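Hi all, long-time lurker, first post. I run a small reading group and we've been trying to get comfortable going from sequence to structure in the token notation. Rather than ask abstract questions, I figured I'd post a concrete chain and ask someone more experienced to write out its structure so we can walk through it together at our next meeting. Sequence below, copied exactly:
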Amino acid sequence: MTLPNGLTAADARQAAAHAYELDRRHVFHSWSAQAQLTPMTITAAQGCYVWDGDGNRLLDFSSQMVNTNIGHQHPKVVAAVREQAAKLCTVAPQHVNDARSEAARLIAERTPGELDKIFFTNGGADAVEHAVRMARLHTGRYKVLARYRSYHGGTETAINLTGDPRRWPNDHGNSGVVHFFGPFLYRSQFHASTESEEAERALAHLEQTIAFEGPGTIAALVLESIPGTAGIMVPPPGYMAGVRALCDKYGIVFIADEVMSGFGRTGKWFAIEHFDGVLPDLVTFAKGVNSGYVPLGGVAIGPAIAASFDDRPYPGGLTYSGHPLATAAAVATITAMRDERIVENAADIGDRILGPGLRELAERHPSIGDVRGTGVFWALELVRDRRTREPLAPYGGTSAAISETVAAAKAAGLLLFVNFNRLHVVPPCVIGEAEAKEGLAILDQVLTIADGHVD
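-- Answer (accepted) --
Happy to help. Here is the structure in token form:
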């Protein structure tokens, strides 16, 4: 057997064994206790599949870090990186380069409203860092509001904005961040029984938080348009419009974090488009902008904030801001997504296959407490008891039930994205009907393991 990268299975196994040995000797992994790791080696990838170090093919329902929106090894993006490397590998960010200019144009065309200025970063976390810096300088205020059950990145400001347990070891309470509860009807903090009640009460809570913190002290509110790692909780109707209205009322900059939800993931170019007429002041992006082929992120900036820096320098920058290889990959990715109607495919697969298929699984498997999502952005909330909604793994941790289910999925050829008690179904936006059904069939098979842990 020959893998997509041309290696024979035997050569791939030998290369994987060598890579694994060096990894365990020298590589320091993120978010992990180093001595407890047995990471999977990936030796090849193509489309919606990856091959592990033993030569097994796995359907990638994780999109790696929910970022390979265009799939693995898309030939147009690979060719664009190769061609750019032959032409101009790197250039300092103060100089114009055509790849960066064209990427900025294509992104600005797709962002909502008049977010026409693009500041490029190396990834999502530093995009969030710079968006907050812009808001603080624009308003002259310091505090930033962010919701619990969120993830905004691993750098200093971004991790403090984050509303999940990864923040705790890095949070010393002096970052200027104030957290609030966002809407999440399945686990409502507001004793709501309908989406309209949840939206109304969540907005009342947010306005009370603003009042108690002092509106004149708050620079920005950072909100994932649809939270990703924290659980893919699609905001109820009216909530995002209400957030926009509160930000307008109190002069607060509204930052929409689209790092995970942007560039086709939800079936639209940006998830904020699901909420008609809601226009943020800043949008952060990364991941899907070029499907992670070369690290890239950025901030799309509205006219009022951009004007703040017309006659005073913006105090921030990066050596690799708008790197030619990364932005060439973005140009190729966005162009291919447009020409091949990949965003439309994500919406169609979500509407016809993933949404109905996951809801059918919920009818058969008592371990599924809730199904949430849109496009190719879905989560299964696994519970021990549907009545009490006790999660199958604790908040901030895992369990034997989850570990066994995920291991069985991998053995059956399915790679999942997992967080606490949730299985996230987040395949590439290019996934076809047959591949989506293949993944659902494997899920149907392995969820019987989770069912065995239901009380």
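A couple of things your group might point at:
The two ends are 45 Å apart (CA to CA).
DSSP finds 13 helices and 16 strands in the chain.
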